[in-house]
Amino acid sequence: MKNLPPSMINSATIPRSTPLDNTTAWSLFSNTAFAPKFADASASGFIDVWGGKYAEGVTADASAWKHDDRLHLIRWDIRTASFDLKFADSTMTAMRSNFYKFVSAYKASGGEPGGFTTYRDEKWTVPEMAEYLYGGGKFAKLQKIKTKYDPKEMFNTDPQAIPALA
Predict the structure, then answer these.
(1) How far from 74 is each of 15, 19, 32, 142, CA to CA, in Å?
(2) Which GO terms label this protein's molecular function in UniProt (predicted)?
(3) SS3 content of the chain, % helix, strand, coil (to 5)
(4) At 1, is the pLDDT very low, low, confident or very high (cuts 50, 70, 90)?
(5) Percent of the chain with pLDDT over 90
(6) Are 160 and 124 spatial neighbours (Cβ–Cβ below 8 Å)?
(7) CA–CA distance, 93 with 89 (Å, rounded to integer)
(8) How far apart are CA 92 and CA 9, in angstroms?
């Protein structure tokens, strides 16, 4: 298997109920695509259009995943040029800080961003992970299931795994 260069991904999902407006879209672009370039990494991203009949048909209580009523997935990535190069800590900090300036502006405008489990932020605390990935009581529901079937947390191999209730 070919070695891939190191990468870092930040993402947020945007609900149909609070789409981006001119101000939040400007915050997104000014803190990502128009932000200063990194010396040791290249950046790219996309806005994936979600929605449609499937998203409209999924009610908030039908799934643990926060994909109900989602309009967009916004993803911002950085990569090094080669597998043997690493990011400077300052690059990762700046990339994350810039992305969360947009997320904060979106929240300040009344939006409730979600997350995408595949692109979750490794620096999230468990409460942040619960908010972004599972919001609306879904985390508590998953904790009850976790407590019933894995009370000793045998399958928790990740710091952001859903913890069993004490």
Answers:
(1) 11, 12, 11, 25
(2) flavin adenine dinucleotide binding; oxidoreductase activity
(3) 35, 15, 45
(4) very low
(5) 45
(6) yes
(7) 6
(8) 10
* Contact yes or no for 90/112 (Cβ under 8 A): no
Which helix (H) or strand (E) segment holds residue 45: the answer is strand 42-49
Give pTM, 2 decimals.
0.82
Model confidence pLDDT, tens digit, residues 10-69: 999 998 889 999 999 999 999 999 999 999 999 999 998 887 776 677 776 676 666 667
Identify the burial level of 32 via C-beta atoms within 10 angstroms of its C-beta, where 0-12 means exposed, 13-18 middle and 19 or more buried. Answer: buried
pLDDT score, position 16: 86
- 115 burial via Cβ count (<10 Å: 0-12, 13-18, 19+): buried
Q: Given its phi and psi angles, is residue 69 left (phi above 0), alpha (psi -120 to 50 degrees) or beta?
A: left
What percentage of the chain reaches a pLDDT higher than 70?
87
Q: For residue 9, what are its two tokens?
A: 């991904």
What are the structural domains of the chain?
7-125 (3.40.462.20)
First to last CA, the chain: 42
